[in-house]
Design a protein that fits this description.
The chain is α+β, with helices and mostly antiparallel strands. The protein is 16% helix and 45% strand.
C-alpha cells in the first residue's frame, strides 16, 4: 500500500528538489481527491514530485514526478477501493513494470474477423494511471448543456471509442444520444485525456479493442445496475436540479457537476 513510508520519502525528496529548482507547491482538490504538485516559478511548468491522495481513506493513489509538465520516470499507481498498488509505469522507456492482475478484468471486447467480441485476454485495454483514473478524468467538471437543464431533460449518452494495437485512440461512434451538445462535451473530455492507452493483449499479441463511455444525466442508475461493472463500459452519473424561487416566481437552475467520489 502506498502510505506513510512513500509519503515520507516523497517529502524529503520534494524539499530537496524544490530548493534546487525554485519550485512552488500547488494543491488541487476535486471531489474526495487531492493532488499535490510543484510548479517551476520561471517556466510555470509542472516539475518535481507529485502525488494524488484519497482524502477519505488517506491512501496515495499516484506518486511520481513531472518534468516540463509531463510525467517522467517511474510512477506508482494505486487502487481507490483497496489502497493496493495497481500498476507501476516507467515513462522514460514507456514500459509497464508491474500490473496487479487481480485488479483487472480477464475478458474484454477485442477485434476479430467477426467484429468486436468479448474474449478472454492476457491483459485488457489499460489507461495508464490509478485504478479508474480514466473515469474520473472524463467525469471531472463535465458540463451539462444549459438547454438540457432549461428543458429539464434526462437521458443517456453512449459513445463508442476504438484503440488499435499500438494504443492509438479513435472515434467516437454515436451509439445512443439525447443531446448533441452533451455528446460534444463528453468527446472533448475524452480526446483531451492526458494519459495514454496500453492495447489489449490476446494470445500474446497486442490487439485492437473497443470501449464505451456512457453518461447518465438524471436517470435512476438502477436502470444500469446489471452492466455497470463491465470493464469495457465507462459509466458516469451526472445530475442537476431545478429549483423554484417563490418571491420572483422564476426557476433557478442549479448545476451539480459530477463528483468523482460518486462515479460508478
Amino acid at each position: 500500500m502506498l502510505r506513510l513510508l512513500s509519503l515520507f520519502i516523497l517529502f524529503l525528496t520534494t524539499v530537496s528538489i524544490a530548493s534546487a529548482q525554485k519550485l512552488k507547491k500547488r494543491t488541487e482538490s476535486y471531489g474526495t481527491y487531492k493532488e499535490v504538485y510543484h510548479i517551476d516559478k520561471e517556466t510555470k511548468f509542472r516539475c518535481g514530485e507529485s502525488f494524488i491522495i484519497n482524502n477519505t481513506t488517506k491512501d496515495t493513489l499516484a506518486i511520481g514526478h513531472y518534468l516540463n509538465s509531463a510525467r517522467a520516470d517511474k510512477w506508482i499507481f494505486g487502487d481507490i477501493e483497496s489502497g493496493e498498488d495497481y500498476m507501476i509505469y516507467n515513462y522514460s522507456n514507456d514500459s509497464l513494470i508491474y500490473l496487479n492482475q487481480s485488479l483487472v478484468a480477464d475478458s474484454f471486447l477485442v477485434k476479430t474477423d467477426n467484429g468486436y467480441e468479448l474474449k478472454k485476454v492476457d491483459r485488457p485495454l489499460l489507461y495508464v494511471g490509478y485504478k479508474d483514473e480514466i473515469i474520473h478524468s472524463i467525469g471531472r467538471d463535465l458540463e451539462i448543456p444549459l438547454e438540457v437543464m432549461k428543458e429539464e431533460k434526462v437521458g443517456l449518452s453512449l459513445l463508442q471509442y476504438f484503440v488499435d494495437e499500438k494504443g492509438n485512440l479513435s472515434g467516437p461512434k454515436l451509439v445512443s444520444g439525447f443531446s448533441k451538445e452533451m455528446e460534444q462535451s463528453i468527446n472533448r473530455k475524452v480526446v483531451m485525456l492526458p494519459g495514454k492507452f496500453l492495447p489489449a493483449i490476446f494470445d500474446g499479441n497486442a490487439i485492437a479493442s473497443t470501449f464505451f463511455v456512457r453518461v447518465n444525466v438524471g436517470l435512476d442508475r438502477e436502470l444500469f445496475a446489471g452492466d455497470i461493472g463491465q470493464p469495457y463500459i465507462l459509466h458516469i452519473d451526472s445530475y442537476y436540479n431545478v429549483q423554484v424561487t417563490e418571491q420572483k416566481e422564476r426557476r433557478r437552475i442549479g448545476i451539480r457537476r459530477v463528483d468523482i467520489s460518486e462515479v460508478r
